[in-house]
Amino acid sequence: MPDPPLALDHRVLRSLLGAWALAACSVDEAIAVEEHLGHCGPCAEEALRLRDAVGLLHPEESLDLDPGLRNRVIESCLGRRPPRIPVPEWAVPYDAETARLDALLRDIGDSEWHAPVRLRWFDEDHPVSRKTTVAGVIAHLLAVDGLVALALGLDDPLGREAPPQSDPGYRTEAYWRASYFPPTRAVRGPWREQTHELIRTVSFTAGGTHGSGSGGLTVPYSAPDDQGRRVELPLRDSMLDRAFECWIHAGDIAEAVDYPYEPPSPRHLHRMIDLAARLLPGTLPDRRRSGLAAPAHGLVAAGAPGRSLRLEVEGMGGGEWFIPLDSPGAGASADREVAHVALDGVEFCRLAAGHVSPEEAAAGQDGDRQAIRDVLFAAASLSRM
């Protein structure tokens, strides 16, 4: 039941009319004034006169700060402030993207934590999705970042009794089942603390900004298959992968709550694109084994030149990559180029995140149509829950 309005006498309420007209009253004072205006003709006339006068002084505008200002300030600080313990260069994108997402989370209201969000990715050649909330997305990031935590010897957010599973989808569902469902804004604390702990740990153990140290560890992203193979990334690439996921899901959240959100800085975006381009050659053989890509053109010795596709990424963070088509270990160069694909940098990342279909992604295509299709669908298959 709502609280009754403040009990203020006529003299006090009349003195508040100027502040009310300027929208400078507290919520309780504004309610009391507006309740009074419904019963007092002279005060209602005075309030109308004051409100009209305020409108002449300046156009009505929001007193809120530009929502994008915080992101720009954080980006500037991260670029200028020398940390007491240097963060390894390969962990800086993760540091930046988690800080930007946390700024977004600070700005949203309690009710927006329950805004619906769809996690989207590609399974084989088909788009799939999972409905959750803003809080559920943060829980997802917490659970999957926990794979990096485990590789570094830190606590698992799923708890000590959690089964040793490394599949991101399994971990997410397990965390959702074990916590409040749907999760609440309380998940922000554990998520942010874990991100800080990951940065602190790799900074202490990496041996300097460019040192090796913990960067040589690997992080598994799947359970072993029947032949003992599993998806895993070096810690350096895994931190970049987690930065990429953080940005993509921050964009999902921003879209759900109508919040302006910019892509990463060009240098960080370039690294994310480079990681996806480096993963593509290893993805193609798996898709061929599953019958999802055309067979390779014969055997190619490791290091020998084979067919290649030229991936040209335009705009922010762009560049040019030659993707070997016949063997992950084959050399790739312009001499054996059989196809060319041109994409915008952000659009390529959306493709690799499973947020746009391969048919819609490419701005320009030329050459072997099957090779182009195989590479675009391989890029979409990099996505996961």
TrEMBL record:
Keywords on record: Transcription, Transcription regulation
Keyword Acyltransferase part of the UniProt annotation: no
Region of interest (Disordered), ranges: 204-228
Keyword Cytoplasm among record annotations: no
Name used for this protein in its record: Zf-HC2 domain-containing protein
Natural source organism: Streptomyces rectiviolaceus
